[in-house]
Design brief:
By secondary structure, the protein is α+β, with helices and mostly antiparallel strands. It is built from 21 helices and 16 strands. It has a 6-stranded antiparallel beta sheet, with helices on one face. Strands 4-5-6-7-11-12 form a 6-stranded antiparallel beta sheet, with helices on one face. A 4-stranded parallel beta sheet has the order 15-14-13-16, sandwiched between helices.
């Protein structure tokens, strides 16, 4: 993890206040406690806080090309950088470090904006090309690394790894975006590209943003999207072999580091698979970290211990109390905007535990979205079969009435809790899935919001986020559709955000 931030005068070359840039950079000191660096020139300032992982001695940032006309600040890792270096050397580029960061500046010189298509990794970076008077920002394909930005009325462009760095500038208006509030109460987070503030935005996954001095700001540009196909002609055995090969390669690349490595281990399928493969790729015992809960109903530490014993890891486990609320203020300062996933508390605790033993930890996050592991997927597909059998023109009035009349029986055995199912059956597939994942459903939000606030959102619904992505999913398969929706919303806005912080 590192932190990047910056200021760019899109209209000219006004002086950058070094003290302001320093303040923005230091607001993210927790992201990069090892080193800090600034680059300042007329109309531009870049800041970086570093957590050293690769090329500890010469990988300082900001980092430059041969004649210092190109400068980059970067958060993340380019996993295939060792493959790209020979190709760039053959094109005549000269390397002064062994870091993946330097690959970015030379790749920009070689391939321009298309350089991101060559990168395999998790990244957010900002690159300044003085000769072209161009600032280029990019975010990785699944938005593992965060990137916030804002264009102020006077033409000043701000960016940073966290919202707090933009706020530290002093020019960002703290005006709440009412549409972001609607999204938060529906989803428990503010979905990309919106933030809680009207003036600020998140760069969406797999997007770049190019700003040229003296020209109007362009819209973010997508360079990649996920496509689901159902035409993979292979047997189950062949699929298992391919999966094992791809997982093994993926984990091998993520184990490239010059600092201690470890893994989060919950005992579930995803994290256990990561640990098993790490153990097979490492000559030394893998460091694993788990959290136990004092409530037996939620404590799964024994499953993690079984995996740790099986692969002879150096296992560390801490106990989290069910009333562990001391972190609430800390988490508010880390997230900068409303965020309602209660697992943020145990996630923070397991990171605290891991940091005592390792610098980098691998996790199994993203496995459920990739492999269809959520229980809600199975329930949704059961509903889909029913929806396919009854025309929507009949389903909406019939099941709509049943949904309104049937009591909310959370106290009853699961087979009798039919209210949510009836409500889902009255909806289209996308509407039903949004309804099933909403923290506060439509009627509850309408009851909560005042008349004045409802006028402010002017009929907007967070459901529009799902409709937008569904319109781009390019699949008729019901499981692939909701996996795509989760990869664009829940994984990015909730899971990746939580683990990053």
């Amino acid at each position: 993890m590192c932190g990047i931030t910056g200021i760019f005068d899109t209209r000219g070359q006004r002086d950058i206040d070094r003290a302001v840039l320093t303040r923005m950079n230091e607001s993210q000191h927790h992201r990069g406690p090892d080193e800090g660096g600034l680059h300042v020139e007329p109309g531009l300032g870049l800041g970086h806080r570093r957590l050293s992982i690769i090329d500890l001695s010469t990988g300082q940032q900001p980092l430059y090309n041969e004649d210092q006309s190109v400068c980059v600040v970067f958060n993340g890792e380019i996993y295939n950088y060792q493959e790209l270096i020979p190709e760039l050397l053959a094109l005549g580029h000269v390397f002064h470090t062994r870091s993946d960061t330097e690959v970015i500046v030379h790749a920009w010189e070689a391939w321009g904006e298309d350089c991101v298509r060559r990168f395999r990794g998790m990244f957010a970076f900002a690159l300044w090309d003085r000769n072209r008077e161009t600032l280029f920002l990019a975010r990785d394909r699944l938005a593992v690394k965060p990137l916030y930005y804002a264009l102020l009325p006077d033409g000043t462009f701000l960016f940073g790894s966290e919202l707090k760095s933009l706020l530290a500038h002093g020019g960002l208006a703290r005006e709440i975006d009412p549409l972001a509030v609607e999204e938060y109460f529906a989803l428990g987070y503010v979905a990309e590209p919106r933030t809680i503030f009207r003036q600020a935005r998140k760069l969406p996954p797999a997007h770049t943003l190019t700003l040229r001095r003296g020209q109007p700001a362009a819209a973010p540009k997508e360079y990649w999207d996920l496509r689901f196909t159902l035409d993979a002609a292979c047997s189950v055995e062949e699929a298992c072999e391919q999966l094992d090969e791809k997982l093994r390669e993926s984990i091998r690349l993520r184990m490239i580091a010059e600092v201690p490595l470890g893994a989060f281990l919950s005992g579930g399928v995803d994290s256990s698979a990561v640990v098993a493969l790490m153990a097979g790729l490492s000559n030394d015992p893998v460091n694993t970290c788990s959290i136990a809960f004092d409530d037996p109903a939620f404590n799964e530490a024994q499953f993690a211990q079984k995996v740790a014993d099986r692969y002879r890891t150096r296992h560390h486990c801490d106990l989290v109390a069910s009333d562990d609320f001391d972190l609430v203020d800390t988490l508010a300062s880390l997230y900068d905007e409303p965020y309602a996933d209660s697992s943020a508390i145990p996630t923070y605790r397991v990171c605290q535990l891991a940091r005592r033993h390792v610098t980098v930890a691998l996790s199994g996050d993203g496995g459920d979205e990739t492999f269809g592991g959520y229980r809600r997927y199975r329930l949704h597909l059961m509903e889909e079969r029913l929806r396919a059998a009854v025309p929507h023109s009949l389903r909406r009035p019939l099941f709509g009435l049943l949904g309104r009349c049937y009591p909310k029986a959370d106290w009853a055995p699961r087979m009798f809790r039919a209210k949510t199912t009836f409500e889902g059956m009255a909806r289209t597939s996308v509407e039903a899935y949004f309804h099933s994942v909403s923290i506060l459903r439509g009627p509850m939000r309408r009851a909560l919001f005042t008349d004045r606030f409802r006028r402010e959102i002017a009929g907007y619904s967070a459901e529009d986020v799902f409709r937008h992505h569904a319109g781009r999913a390019d699949t008729d398969d019901p499981l692939a559709l909701i996996q795509y929706l989760d990869l664009k919303t829940y994984l990015v806005g909730d899971i990746n955000t939580k683990v990053d912080r």
